[in-house]
Every structure is written in C-alpha cells, then in structure tokens.
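Appendix B, example 12.
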Amino acid sequence: MKNTILILILFISLSCFGQQYPDFKSLRYDENYSFLKNDTTTDNWYKTMKFLPLSASKESYISFGGSIRYQYFYAENENWGDGPQDSDGYVLSRYLFHADFHTGKFFRAFVQTQSSLADSRIDPSPVDQNPLEVHQAFADFNFINEKNHKLILRTGRQELTYGSQRLVAMRDGPNNRQSFDAVKVITSKNNVSADFFYSHFVVAHDGIFDDNSTPERQFWGSYFVINKVPLIKNIDVYYFGYERTKATFNDGAGKEERHSVGTRIWGKTENWRYDGEALYQFGDFASKDISAWTASINLGYRFNEIKFRPELSFKAEAISGDKQMGDNQLQTFNPLFPRGGYFGLASIIGPSNLLDFHPGISLQLSKNIDWVIDYDMFWRYSSNDGIYGPNTFLIYPGDTTSSKKIGNQLETEVIWQPNSYLYFRFESTWFNAGDYIKASGTGKDIFFAGITMQLNF
C-alpha cells in the first residue's frame, strides 16, 4: 500500500509539469535531451534529471529515466481450460530504470535495469517474472555523427527491434522485455539507413543478476530502410540468420539453422495507412531442409471529417506450416523474436502455421482517449502441423483432427493517455474455440480482462 501511494503521488507530480518535452520512445536509448543544454531553468528537478551537466561546457552530461507499469489480469479457461486455472487473477509489475551518459558527439554509454514480478501468477514463466537484471548495458562509438550522415558502432547488451516487429521486437507487451548481447553497426545517409549485427540471445532466469546470453541461440543479420520512395513511400529489405541447438517442431527436434530474406512496403497519407510484408525462410533443421514463408497486409482508412474520426482496418496473414510428417522437409515458419502479444491480450497463438483475417475499427473518443474493437478469425494453414505459441513452443500437435478451424477472437480496449507521462488501458478478449481446439484439448472458450497503468519519466 505504501508503494502504491508513493507511485500515485509521483503520478500527480509528473502530470503537473508545465514544460513539454519530446514524447517518450519505446526504445528509450533513442531519446535525446541535449537540447536542454540551452535551457536556463534552475529550479526544475525533473529537467535536471533529464540533463545533468558533468562539464562546464555541458558537452558531457547524464540523463536518467524509466518506467513503472502495473497490470491486473483476470482469466477464465486460460489455455482453453488445459493446465492449472486461477480464479482470482494476478498482478504483473515491471520497473525499468536507465542512465544515459554522453561525452561530446562521439561517445555514449547506456545502462538499464529491469525488474519484472508476477504476484499470484500460477507457475510464472521467465516472460512474466525476472526479479532484477541488467537489461541493457552498451557503448556507442560515433565515428560520424552529423544530421544526415551517421556511422555508429554499438557493442554490449541491447534491445533490438526492426520494422513492424513481426520478427524482431523488444517485446514490450509481456512483462519481461527481451535483449541481446550484440555488436551492431548503425549507418545512415540521407534517406537510406542500415544496421548490421551479430548477437547472442539473453536468456532470462528466475534469480537476481543471473541472466546470461548463450551461444545456443545465435542471431545475426542486416536491415535496410529506404525512405521517401516515390509512390511507395518506404521500403525495408532485410536478411536475418538464426541458429539454435535445441529446436522443437511438430515434425521433430534437433539443431536449427534458418535464414530469412524479406521486404516490407509501408507508409501513410492523410487518410490511408498501409503495411505489407513478405519473406522466405530456408536452411536446415535436423536432417530436414527448411522452406517456409509468410505474407501479410495491414490496411487502415481514417475518416478525419467524421465525429470520433473512425478508422476502419483490415489485417490478413498467411503463414506456412509443415505439409507432411516424417519427410525430409520442414515448412513450419519460425517468427524468431516477435512481439509477445502477437494477436492481442490472450497472447496464446503465435505466428506459425496460420491463416488469419482481422477486421477492426477504432474511435477517437477525445483527444486522449481511443476505443479499439477488432475481430480475429484463425485457421491452421496446414492440417498436418500443430499450432504454436509466440516462441514456437508447440501447443497442440497436428494429428488430433483434420479440421483447420482454430477459433475466433473478439477484443476491445480503451486507451487513455492524459499526458506524455501516463498511460492507462482497459481491455477484454473473448476467444471462441474452434473444432481443432476442441479436438486437441479441453476446448473451452477463453475470457480475458486486464487493466494496465504505466508511468514514464
């Protein structure tokens, strides 16, 4: 109770700040507070926290920040009624704090700690609970640091995220964000930017300061973004390589080496937004050849002249699954390191062996309140493959029935963001189990409800 009161006081204090700063970014290391060097305010402790000079010239400075998030979730028939059930709900809390040190234009160091706790959660996974860890700790060496031309070497523990986060994300939705021990080269010139990286995934453990990266999960690649393309607006082109020594799919287990080559076209106009992506995967799994793919489209049209500015949206995905058990081919798509709640709050199904159609509507009830309603329809792509979680963990095998229908999901959420510091979300999800789910397990319908409260500073 004491902690809750202190946090509420902090909420109120921050919400009363008159000075406006740039919006907080999902990757906190992308924030830049060097503009405060010319701010002559002396009695604003928050400004001092964001820009604390360490030299007379103010070229060396340190910036502090973080976020605190509380979530309450209630579930009926979690995992479609299979496994232990919790009738009282549970509370997830996450604390992120960082320090960002700059000296001149050519060097910076960034350190961030993370503490993720799951109270009353039955058998929490590392995605839910990871008590206290060094989440990020890296150094940037800026060989070129100009407005339209950059060349940066980043080395150390860091978050990675690319494109629409279908393949690589910081995984902000779940309680514990993910990171990598990596070496990365960041370069950009005018309208073209590119990253080149090699990394080991950081495995979460249920202790204090015991997370470690492992050579059993190696990840490398390159990602190019071309902006201001005539007609198309923006194009991404990328390659990702992934190797893990212990992989399991419906068609067996063994070492996996997978290569992903893809492209993405995206942009927006005054009314339209669009995001289309396609990629192909090849490589080796045990004694099998990998040949997998996915294609997706995400469209939205906003009626700006109508009250509440409604936006109609439509998403569709086709994601390959394995065609035949016991052969020398594997067609199951691997989403690598995607965002956690891939298809909403329930966060059960991952993007493998799937057909998904997803219409929705959002309303801007006021300047700071949005209401979103969407409906998702799921089928298996291949009736010979099972369904998987977001981390490619096999949920149900493929041989329980020939039916492809997984189910339908209705989700609604209200998001209130009174200012740049505070964020509230109220959401609920109903998942109607289809024939495949009913044949594979207990097969009950799922109901989820949740409340999220987050403070950024």
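The longest strand covers residues 212-229. The two ends are 22 Å apart (CA to CA).
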